[in-house]
Structure formats: structure tokens, C-alpha cells
Write a structure and sequence with these properties.
- The complex is a heterodimer of chains A (191) and B (187).
- Chain A is an alpha+beta fold.
- Chain A folds into two domains: 62 residues; 72 residues, no CATH class.
- Chain A contains six helices and five strands; from the N terminus they run ααβαββββααα.
- In chain A, strands 1-5-4-3-2 form a five-stranded antiparallel sheet.
- In chain A, strand 4 and strand 5 form a beta hairpin.
- In chain A, helix 1 runs antiparallel to helix 5 and helix 2 packs across helix 4.
- The longest helix of chain A has 29 residues.
- With 187 residues, chain B is an alpha+beta fold.
- Chain B has two domains: 105 residues, no CATH class; 76 residues, no CATH class.
- Chain B contains six helices and five strands.
- In chain B, strands 1-5-4-3-2 form a five-stranded antiparallel sheet.
- The longest helix of chain B is centred in the C-terminal third of the chain and has 31 residues.
- The radius of gyration of chain B is 23 Å and the shape is elongated.
- Classes of the chains: A alpha+beta (191), B alpha+beta (187).
- Chains A and B meet through helix 1, helix 2, helix 5 and helix 6 of A and helix 1, helix 2, helix 4, helix 5 and helix 6 of B.
Chain lengths: 191, 187
């Protein structure tokens, strides 16, 4: 059993190393934002599309022409024009399409490495039209389950070292009691 | 090992949050959170306060705890000042009914899973000022650093103690290729 758990712990660790590193580092970026400033490269483009399209058709036409790639978000209409975002982790195209003339203007921002990591960190769910975003979400789910299994297997491996049980028990107790009481107090204070 | 034992609780919170995130609604489809409690408190604000200062005073009177600063200031149909506060336990909308001399507090409490989801982002630089949130913020931030160090030291321990395991190298290499391909396909 010890050998199995040790291999499980190793397999989870090497298997999720890169995704775990993404989450660990992006968490640091999120906490210490001023140290890791967000920036983006901006570019502008215009396209002539068919007239009279709705937002979905206009976005699809832009994607098929290679001018943008991602999923459609935030459709809104103002002053006779359609505005929407074509988004994927790290890149966003703010698009304005005029159905009357068929003209579309894209203001594309390509975010830097830190901001892309943050967007991957918060990316979730399998509802994305952009398939890679679903795959990143699947990796997030995997590493979340992996964290729980790493923790459980790690505790087993610790327990199988009798000399470490005393100090380990103290650390587990401290590492549970303090945050649990803090969370409990916060939960009770709500409302 | 010691870092893992000490930060085990954070791992559980993060793991539950990540699994719960699968079921969160898509951006733009969230809808309004349901109101879980409403109360009205007789209160007249001191004179000559601007909206922002008044909202801070109103939050103190409201009895709400573990919430951030007032945001989303606006006027309702009756021109009453209304604003929101957010915290780990959800959102509350406050309306100062100036003519009636009352403060209306609409609490939109969240589920325990949502509470953990909000809490998983707690740190020393973020979160309500109450002692529970502060202690959790310190612990969570420490756990973040420990997680980063364990991720890196874990690879070191593998290479230092069991470097000849073929399946480990295959797993590591395969995931490296997959992540690189996915990053390239995303960017």
C-alpha cells in the first residue's frame, strides 16, 4: 500500500506539475498585482462584411476570415451598431459592426503573460465555444481533484513514518484548527 | 512534507472551489442572486454627508459584518441612494430611504460552496477587515507560497530520489507537450 500511495503521489505530482505551476504562480500574480503589471498590445483592423448580419453571423464571418478567434461575448446594441467581444484567454477583440454598411472595426488586445495566466486561472466551465478554453477548464478540474488526492496520499505517506507522527499531528491540527475557526467565524458573521 | 501538512486545509478549500467552478454559470448568464433576508433599520444620516461618506456610515449602522467597501452607488426610481457591499457570504444591497428615515438592507446570502469560492481568493491584501477574514487571509497567502514551493521541490525530490522511473518521465514529457500545444493553440 505504501508503494502504491507513493507512486500515486508521484504520478499526480508529475502529471499535474505544469498546471499546478500555472495555478500556483498565477495565484501569486493575483495577490501581488502591482509586482506583475498587466499590459496589452493593441491593434486595429477593419473589415467589410455583408450588410444586415446579426452579431453571431458577423462574429462568425470575422472568425472565418481569420481576423479573430475565440468565443462571442457581451453583445449589445447602441446607435444602430452592434458591439461584441470575441474573447479567448489572453486575447480580446472589441468589435463594432454596422449592419447598415457592413463595416466592422476590431480593437484587439493581446494581453501579456501575467494577465493571460490570470485569465486561465479564472477560466471555468465547459460552455465555451472556443474549444481550448474548455480544455483548460478540464485541466482546472483535473488539478482540483488532483490537489485533494495529493493531499490525501500525502497524509498517508506521512503517517507511515512513525518518527514524524508527533510533529505531523501537531502541524495538521494547527493547520486545520486555525483556518477552520477563521472561516467559521467569517461564515457566522455574515448576514 | 511539513508544508503540506500545515496547508492541507487550504488544499481542500482550493480543490472544492475548483470542482465547484465547473458548475458556475457562464459569464453574462449569472442572473440576480436571490434575496435571503430583508430588514429595515430606523436611521437618519448626519447632515451634509456626500453619498460616498453616507454609504460608509450606513454600512456601520446596518450590522453587516465581513463586507468590503460600498460600491455600485446609484439612485433608484424614487431617487433614494442605493449601493451594494460584497463579502465572502455574498452580496447585500442597501437603500437609504431618506424621506422615511430608514435604511433598508437586502441580504443576498450565498451557499457554503460559493463562500469557499470567495474565500479561496483571500489574502493579506484582500478581504474584509474582521479578524476571521484576516487570519484566513494570512493562512491562505502562506499556503499559496507553500504550494509554489512544493510544486517545485516535488520535482526536485523526484529527480533526486527516483530519477529512473520511466513512466514518470513519460508522464512528465507527455503533459509538457500537451500543455505547450494547448498554450500555442490558445495564444
Amino acid at each position: 500500500m505504501f508503494r502504491l500511495m507513493r507512486n500515486v503521489h508521484l504520478a499526480l505530482g508529475v502529471g499535474f506539475f505544469f498546471v499546478a505551476l500555472l495555478f500556483a504562480f498565477s495565484s501569486i500574480v493575483l495577490i501581488y498585482r502591482p509586482w506583475f503589471p498587466s499590459s496589452s498590445e493593441r491593434s486595429h483592423a477593419t473589415a467589410q462584411l455583408e450588410r444586415g448580419l446579426d452579431a453571431r453571423a458577423a462574429a462568425l464571418a470575422l472568425m472565418r476570415s481569420g481576423m479573430a478567434e475565440g468565443e462571442l461575448r457581451n453583445i449589445r446594441e447602441s446607435e444602430g451598431k452592434l458591439r461584441f467581444l470575441i474573447w479567448r484567454p489572453g486575447t480580446q477583440a472589441d468589435t463594432v459592426y454596422a449592419p447598415e454598411t457592413g463595416e466592422a472595426t476590431l480593437d484587439t488586445r493581446r494581453y501579456n503573460f501575467y494577465e493571460t495566466l490570470v485569465q486561465l486561472h479564472v477560466n471555468h466551465g465547459f460552455f465555451h465555444d472556443f474549444m481550448p478554453a474548455n480544455l483548460w477548464a478540464l485541466l482546472s478540474l483535473g488539478v482540483s481533484v488532483g490537489l485533494l488526492l495529493l493531499g490525501a496520499s500525502g497524509i498517508y505517506l506521512w503517517y507511515r513514518h512513525p518518527k514524524e507522527r508527533r510533529i505531523g499531528t501537531a502541524l495538521i491540527a494547527l493547520g486545520f484548527a486555525v483556518p477552520a475557526v477563521a472561516l467559521f467565524a467569517t461564515r457566522l458573521s455574515g448576514g | 512534507m511539513y508544508a503540506g501538512l500545515l496547508t492541507f486545509t487550504a488544499f481542500v478549500v482550493w480543490g472544492v472551489t475548483g470542482i465547484h467552478a465547473v458548475f458556475l454559470p457562464a459569464p453574462g448568464t449569472e442572473g440576480e442572486p436571490a434575496t435571503t433576508a430583508v430588514r429595515e433599520i430606523p436611521w437618519r444620516a448626519p447632515g451634509n454627508l456626500d453619498d460616498k461618506t453616507l454609504s460608509v456610515a450606513a454600512v456601520e449602522v446596518s450590522g453587516l459584518r465581513a463586507v468590503g467597501r460600498p460600491v455600485l452607488h446609484r439612485r433608484d426610481a424614487g431617487q433614494n441612494l442605493t449601493f451594494a457591499v460584497f463579502g465572502p457570504n455574498g452580496r447585500s444591497d442597501l437603500t437609504y430611504l431618506e424621506s422615511a428615515g430608514k435604511l433598508r438592507v437586502e441580504i443576498k446570502g450565498n451557499s457554503f460552496a460559493d463562500f469557499l469560492s470567495v474565500s479561496h481568493a483571500g489574502s493579506t491584501r484582500r478581504g474584509p477587515p474582521e479578524w476571521g477574514a484576516r487570519v484566513w487571509g494570512v493562512y491562505n497567502e502562506f499556503a499559496n507560497w507553500a504550494f509554489l514551493l512544493m510544486t517545485l521541490s516535488g520535482i526536485y525530490l523526484w529527480l533526486a530520489t527516483r530519477p529512473k522511473i520511466v513512466w514518470a518521465w513519460a508522464t512528465f514529457g507527455l503533459t509538457a507537450i500537451l500543455i505547450a500545444a494547448l498554450w500555442w493553440g490558445t495564444r
